[in-house]
Amino acid sequence: MTTGSNDGTATPRPRAASWRPPATVVPLIDSHCHLDQDAFAADRDAVITRARAAGVERMITVGAGGALASNEAAVAIAADTPGIFAAVAVHPHDASAIAADTWGELRRLWAHPKVVAVGETGLDYYYEHSPAEVQQRHLRRFVREAGRAGLPLVIHCRDAFPDLLRIFREEDAAAVGGVIHCFSGSPAEADACLALGFALSFSGIITFKTAGRLREVVRATPRDRILIETDAPFLAPVPHRGKRNEPGLVRRVAEEIADSLGIDLAEAARLTTANTERVFRLPSPTDT
């Protein structure tokens, strides 16, 4: 299991952000975190407990963190924990490691009742840890496999939107649907993804001082297409930037969404929760 982040940087040290429960709790969903990562090995249960105290009733933990064992670990966490679901795939960084027998293992995991998405997959040309052609070939396969499995896609894209959108059109990814996770692209890229029926998920990046353009994207995105996430343990929001992120801090993302849209936190929580339930076809909290 890798301890590197999805953008190729080192995993944050296990030093957690300073944390206290909010005075007023609103129900939230963290649509993308990595609870299987080594950064949570020492206090995973406490991290989940803190998330619940912050109102984060449900979380989607994403495998796809290196070796196939990362997916197995994510599914095991989801299977053992009410309110936690899993997404399963191979990250584009690791596309070169996909072998013929990988697909059978992934299909087995996709059939698990707590697995709600194929992801994260996509394209990453910033680091290009796997050759672009290999990433593209496997992305096409993941789109087709998601369609067969009846699961939405969770897409990672960095410096690769022209090829991503071309492949989406050629493979009819609009018929599969899903979410562009940790969206940080341009308004034009956002419009193109939205036109293909995908939702956009925003992370702690929108709290950064330099994220003015991204907050404009939030304002221009239809409210029924906005999701929130932490990508924990990565990308901790301000004022915790540089420390280990955790699902309880998705509230800061919801607060920034609320500020950007000119709505209150409760409304931001309601709309992002409803959107996440719809994209991932989640059961109601009482059924998890």
Determine the CATH superfamily.
Answer: Metal-dependent hydrolases
Overall domain count: 1
Number of strands: 8
Helix count? 9
Taking the sheet with the most strands, its summary is: 8 strands, parallel
User: Globular, elongated, flat, extended or rod-shaped: what is the shape?
Assistant: globular
Order of helical and strand elements: EHEHEHEHEHEHEHEHH
Radius of gyration of CA atoms, rounded to a whole number:
17 Å
What is the third-level CATH name, the topology?
TIM Barrel
Uncertain runs with pLDDT below 50, 5 residues or more? 1-14
Report the β-strand fraction as a percent range: 15-25%
Helicity level: 25-40%
SS content category: alpha/beta
Query: What CATH first level would be assigned?
Result: Alpha Beta
Separation of the first and last Cα atoms? 27 Å
For the largest beta sheet, what order do the strands appear in spatially? 1-2-3-4-5-6-7-8
Detailed description of the structure:
This protein is α/β, with parallel strands linked by helices and 288 residues long. It has one domain (28-287): Metal-dependent hydrolases (TIM Barrel). Helix content is 37%, strand content 15%. It has helices at 44-53, 68-80, 102-110, 132-149, 161-170, 187-195, 212-220, 250-261, 265-280; strands at residues 28-33, 56-62, 84-88, 115-124, 153-158, 178-180, 199-202, 226-228. The protein has an eight-stranded parallel sheet with strand order 1-2-3-4-5-6-7-8. Helix 6 (187-195) links the parallel strand 6 and strand 7 (199-202). Helix 2 (68-80) runs parallel beside helix 3 (102-110). The radius of gyration is 17 Å and the shape is globular. Residues 1-14 have low confidence and may be disordered.
